[in-house]
Amino acid sequence: MELKKQSFNQNLQKGKAFTQVTLDDDCIVRDSKPDVIKIIHTKGSIIFEEVKVSSQTVWVTGQLKFTVLYRSDGGGNKLETLSDSVNFGEKIFMDEVEELDQVKLSGRLEDLSITAINSRKLAVRAVVGIQAVCEQQEEEELVSSVIAGEEVQQRKETRQMLLLMTSKKDLIRTHNEMTLPGSNPNVGRIIYYHVDIRNKEVVLTGNLVQMKGEAFLSVLYLSVEGQMEWYETMAPFTGSMDCETGGQQPIYWIRTNPADIELELIGDYDGEMRSLSLDMTFDVDIKIWQEQEMEILADVYSLSENLIPQTQQTRTWKLLVKNEAKLRVSQQMKLADGQERILQLCSYEGTVAIDQIEPVDNGLKVEGILSVHILYATTDDSFPVAHTFEQLPFTQIIDVQGMAANARDIVYELEPGIDQLAVNLLDNERYEIKASISLAALVLKEECFDKIVEIREEALDVEQLSNQPGITGYMVRSEESLWDIAKRYHTTEDEIMRTNGLKSRNFRGGEKLVIVKSVS
Fold first, then answer.
1. Which residues of 457-474 are buried (b: 16+ CB within 10 A; e: fewer)?
2. For 304, which of 151, 177, 233, 498 could close a Cys bridge (C-beta 3.0–4.6 Å)?
3. Which whole-number Å values give the CA distances from 132 to 60, 89, 94, 256, in the listed order?
4. Which of 6-15, 72-81, 352-361, 381-390 is predicted most confidently?
5. How does 212-245 read in b/e, with b if 16+ C-beta sit within 10 Å?
6. Cα separation values, 208 from 174, 205, 239, 283, Å
């Protein structure tokens, strides 16, 4: 007896682990940099360098890259930055991983504190959260039918399944050039800059991944004459990459994160230093599925021999929802006592961090924090730039119909983003933060069923068969199918329908049938 099979791919999460790394190091100010009088603002990012996987262990190395904006010893208007890095290595234990497995990492800078030990030495303290996920692409085989004679009866069922078409990582690079407006003096030297990514959209069109968004650039620089200047602009950006989709309308999840942002001062057509080149590189993680109905063999028996299906439990995924929730966050703030008063807002930058995700009835409850860093000009001529930092908590429920509270048979992907961010000055110590946050979510539900992997063939028990009556009167029990009755009484569905003049295989419990035993 030959089994006809069909195969499909799916991604299975083999293991998952989270760890925190505490970094504690000293940074020496390079000789080319002036003394540190007071630290104004710090920012940092996590870069993973190498991942080594062995049995039950993942070894990770990387860097904490940081930038410090500080007041130097060159007078009230003298601002400087220094950039440096701290190396780290961490061993993550994952019971399920093996040497050849692929492990994906994501890092989050949970805390960063940089203080001055003296004018030439800084103390760097940080907490880094590392999430490690091991996913394994597996090929599943399903028996769709058996190739045999007419005496073999087959019951098939159709399942809606989510088939994995593509799972890969890649890069998208973007490039922008901007020229300072005529009211801004020429750039002598860039001191500090920051780029906020907002209104990011990623779509899959045909065999092309297309990304677009807005890069909000803030630059603090010294003019050729040595005066401190601010420049802010919004640069729309686009980028794309090729990606095979199989030619059908797919379901996809594409996560993009800035991996590297570089700002360079370049000359304009006249050779004056008035143009800026912004190059951004995004890590892209792509998964593409195809929803498809697959016919599989659910049961089998024969009139000429005893067929015993051997089954094995398998699991597939069903799409519950691909959704995006929008929420607004707004709050009035006041400077802490003793902080320099605000003369003018210079720039502000925001990030969204997710703290907790919890399944609830018909939804995902998401709790997170919007962090906003604000640089502003002060009313103190001896110290013209200061920094303040605010955190705004938020809670949002993303609609997921069919979700049960505390469900364990789901997996989800969530990507937060900032669509809009504004800080409005109310007076010299109060300001209002307004933001629009997007939460894109993909939720899949696990479905388990028994699939036939083999059919064992045995001879019929002739004695048992001969003891069965040739004609039987039978009352149908509730939730009993025509297939169940035919298999039990060694006949076929078509024979029962023909004998009883039935036009449909569907009937209710309590109906009476006449069953004639069939012998091949």
1. eeeeeeeeeeeeeeeeeb
2. 151
3. 10, 14, 9, 17
4. 352-361
5. ebbbbbbbbbbeeeeebbbbebebebebebebeb
6. 15, 5, 10, 16
HSE-CB at 149 with a 13 A cutoff on CA atoms is 6
| Mean model confidence pLDDT for the chain | 90
The pLDDT assigned to 246 comes to: 66
Nearest Cα neighbor of 214 from 424, 419, 435, 434 is 419
520 vs 519: which has the higher pLDDT: 519
317: helix, strand or coil: strand
Which amino acid would we find at residue 55? S
Alpha-carbon Rg for the chain in angstroms: 33
DSSP string, 120-149: TEEEEEEEEEEEEEEEEEEEEEEEEEEE--
Yes or no: say if 174 and 239 are a contact pair by the CB < 8 Å rule. Answer: yes
| 281-329: pLDDT as tens digits | 999 999 999 888 889 999 999 988 899 999 999 888 888 899 899 999 9
Please list, in sequence order, all residues whose beta carbon lies within 8 angstroms of the beta carbon of residue 238, skipping any fewer than 6 positions away. Answer: 174, 210, 211, 212
Q: Which two tokens stand for residue 49?
A: 């360098």
CA dihedral 437, 442, 446, 451 (to 10 degrees): 180
Q: How confident is the model at residue 519 (pLDDT cuts 50, 70, 90)?
A: low
Which residues on neighbouring strands pair with residue 113, listed in sequence order? 125
Pairs from 44-50 (Cβ < 8 Å, separation ≥ 24)? 44/109, 44/112, 44/126, 45/109, 46/107, 46/108, 46/109, 46/128, 48/105, 48/107
Measured in residues, the chain has a length of 520
How many angstroms separate the CA atoms of 137 and 288, rounded? 13
Residue 342 dihedral angles phi and psi, to the nearest 5°: -90, 125
